[in-house]
Amino acid sequence: MPxxxxxxxxxxxxxxxxxxxxxxxxxxxxxxxHGDWLLVQFGAPVRPGDVVILRHxxxxxxxxxxxxxxxxxxxxxxxxxxxxxxxxxTDYGTxxxxxxxxxxxxxxxxxxxxxxxxxxxLGWAASALRPVSADRSVSRRLRAR
Length: 145
Description:
The chain is α+β, with helices and mostly antiparallel strands. 15% of the residues lie in helices and 35% in strands.
């Protein structure tokens, strides 16, 4: 099951305004990859298209990262960007508003060992730190490659 682990600020509660979390699992590929780090803002307003952190509706000790697709009643329909990974509202339905905890603001992609060449470093530098876009068209363009 894709999820998150808390970063260096481990032990902080959801009351912290900003926090760093690590992405685990493939459900948000190509937007986010296993091992990416997210700067998230707790209590931020959520709009359709935002990448959000939520408590899994059936395993509330598990935090997951998904895209808020649309508002449905008193909650959010959330989807992973990787349609083949599952583990989103198509499996568990609308997520109640109180389980949507934070909004992702930026993504940091750590340098991998195989990126030590000049070209690898240039490619990493061009994409290592960027805002998490609410525009799904970015993901669609990447998916088409």
